[in-house]
Specification:
heterodimer; A: alpha/beta; Aspartate Aminotransferase, domain 2; Aspartate Aminotransferase, domain 1; 2 domains; 7-stranded mixed beta sheet; 13 helices; B: alpha/beta; Rossmann fold; SH3 type barrels; Elongation Factor Tu (Ef-tu), domain 3; 3 domains; 6-stranded antiparallel β-barrel; 8 helices; globular
Chain lengths: 382, 363
Amino acid sequence: MSSLYFDTAATTPLDKKVSDIMAEIQNSIFGNPSSIHQFGQKSRTLIEKSRRKIATSFNCKPNEIIFTSGGTESNNLVLKGILKPGDHLITSSYEHPAVINAAKQLENNHIEVSYVKPDLNGVVSPDTIQSEIKPNTKLISIMYVNNEIGSTNPIEDIICIAKKCSIKFHSDAVQVVGKQNLDLNALGADFLSIAAHKYYGPKGIGMLFLKSGNSIESIINGGGQEQSVRPGTENVAGIVGMALATEIATDNVALNSKKIIKLENLFLDLLNKTEIQYKINGQSRIPGIINMTFENMLGQTLVMKLDMMGIAVSFGSACASGALKPSKALLDIGLSEHDALRTIRISIGKFHQEDDIKTLVQSLESILNQKTNVNHENNYVS
Amino acid sequence: MSPKETVLVAMSGGVDSSVALIKIIESGYNPIGVTMKLWGYNEVGGSDDNSCCGINEINGAKLVCDQLGVPHYTIDFQNVFKETVIDDFANEYLNGRTPNPCVRCNSYVKWDAFIKQADELGAQYIATGHYATIGSFNNQSVIKKGVDPIKDQSYVLWGIPKDSISRTIFPLGDLTKKQVREIARKHNLETAETPESMEICFVADNNYNRFLNEYIPDKMESIGPGEIIDEENTVVGEHSGYTNYTVGQRKGIGLSYPDPRYVKAIDAETNTITISTKNKLYKNECFISNINWLIKEPGLPINAYAQIRYNSNPVLAKISIESGQAKAIFDKPQLAVTPGQSIVFYNEKNPEILIGGGIIELK
C-alpha cells in the first residue's frame, strides 16, 4: 500500500537537515543556557545565533523574537497578556481554537469580544473590522491565512486601520511561513505567532514576534528567560532546528511555492478529466491548501476511505480526540451544512512529486466513482 | 472469503469491544475499528475518566487497534445521540418515568447511524462487544442470549431493526466475561483491566439529579418539593422533587414506618409520589407501547417469556391486544413494573431467543 501524505497544513515532516542538526545537538549539547559555565555558554550561543538567523529570515530584530512552544502558546500569550477587564478585542469567527477559546475565556473575565465573520470567499474584510472598532478596542487579532480554507486575509490593510486608531494588531501566521514571504519590519504587525512544525521544523517550538516598543504581561512565571514573557529553560535543539527550518523555508519560498502551484494545477487538471463533481471553497488561497467539496460523499467517509488506501487528507481541522464534526469555518463562509459535511482539505507540500498527485487523483476517482445503493441523504445527522 | 468481508467494529475503549475485535480478526474478516463519540462532558456535565467517549477511552481503543494492526477512526455521533437518547432520557424523567437509554442508543445510534456508517464505508457487517449471540430460527436470523447468564445483554437489544440482525456479529456471545478478560490479558491489551461500566455512560457518576440539574436547569428549577401520599391519598410527608425518585425505590424516601415503604407511583403533573408497602408493588399486568418484533410479526395473542427490567427473571406472560393497546398479563405478579422501562419478550419454547419488546406503560 502506498503511503502519501497530503495534510501538510496540519503538520509537516521534519526536513532531513533539520533532523540531523537536532540529533547532533541532542547528542552533544545539554547545558542550561542560563548557566555561567562553558556548558551553559555553548547552549546560550546556539540559541542566540538561532535567534539572529530567524531575525534575518523574517527581517526583524533578534530581541523581537520570543521562543514559545508553538502557535497555541504564542496566541494565548498575546491575548491574555494584553487584554484587561473592560478592554475590547476584535477577532474573526474562524480563528484557530487557540484564539477562539482564549477569547471565550477572556469574555468570562469581562473582556468584550467581537467575532467578525469572513465573507463568502473566506476573507475577513477590513471594512468589517473598521465597523467593529470602539473606544475601548485594545487589540485586533486576525489570522494571516485560514488553516482550513487556505484563504489569505488582507493583513496589511487591517494593520493600517489598527494603526490609525492606535489599536494593537496580532496575527496567527502559522500557515504562512514557507508559502509566502514574511517581512515583519515591512508588515508592521505588533504581534505574530509562528510554529516551526508547519514548515518542516520540529514540533513543540515556535515563536511570538513582539515588535519593539510593545510589552505584554506574562501569563506564566519563572526565571527570566525570553524577556520573562515566556520563562522556562529553553528548548535548545528545538530552537536550533526551528532556525534552520526557517532559513530553508524563507530561502526557498519562491521555488517551493512555484512547485506547489504547479502541482496544484496538475491536480485540478487531472481532476477535471474525471467525472468527479467538486468545488473549491475560498479565494485568495495560499499555495498548497485546497479545501474542496465532493458532492458524492461525506468528508469523513472520504478521509477514512483514502486513509485505508494509504492517502492522508483531512476533514475539518484536527482535534485532540480525532472526532469528526462539520467545520465551523466552512459554515461561516456560507457553506450549507450539507456541503460542509462533504468537504475535505488537501494540502500539498514541497516534497510531493507529480506521481503523488496522479495517485491521489486515481484514488479519488476509484472511491468517488463507486456506485453504491446507499441513500446518502440519510447517512448523516444534521 | 474472497475478497475479505469488511466489518465495522464498535470500539468503546473497554475490554469487551477490544476482545470483540480480536475475535473478528481471528474469524478472517477485514475489520475497521470505530469509536463513536457520543457525548462530551461540556454537554452533560460531570467528570469521570472511566467511561466511554472520554479522550482516555478513545485513545485506549486506538492503541488496541494499533496493536492489532487495524485502522481506527473516531466518528462523531453526538447530534444523533443527543437527539435520540439524552433528550429523551431527560424528558422521560420530567414525565415521571424511568427511561432506558441503552435501549434507545442501540435502536437509534448503533443499529441505525452506525450501520449507515458501515454502508458508507462499504462494510458488510457491524460487530459490537455485546454479550448476545446471533442464531437462526425458522430460517430467520435471530438474537439469542449470551452464554454468560450474568452478562447477557439481549435485554437492551429488543429495539433494533429486524433486518439489521443478519448484518450483525456478536463475537462475545459464546464467551463469559471471565474468558474475555483472559483473552485480553493473554494478548496484553491496553484495555485488559478496564473497569466494568455499570452506569449509564453519560451519567458516569450515577447521579441523575446532578445530570438533570446541569442538562435542563430551567425545567429542573421549576420542580420543587411535593407531597408524598399513601394509597388512601393521605399526605404522609414531603419529597424533594419527583425526578429524584423511581418506582420501586425504598431508600431516600425519608419516612419511618415499622415495615418499609416503597415508591409505587410518580405523578409528574401534580408533583406527587405515592408510597406503599412492598406487597402492593406487585402487578399482574401492564400495557406496552412501541412494540418491535425481531421475528416475523406474530399474530396476537401469543405466550412469551417477558422480562421487565435488566436484572429481573423472565416470566411467562400472555401478550395480547386490549381495546387497541398491547398488554402483557403475567403468570406471576411482577414487582415494581416501571413505566418507561423495557418489557422484553423471549420465545416461549426457546427462551434464549429474543423475539421483541416494548416500553412499559401503566395506561
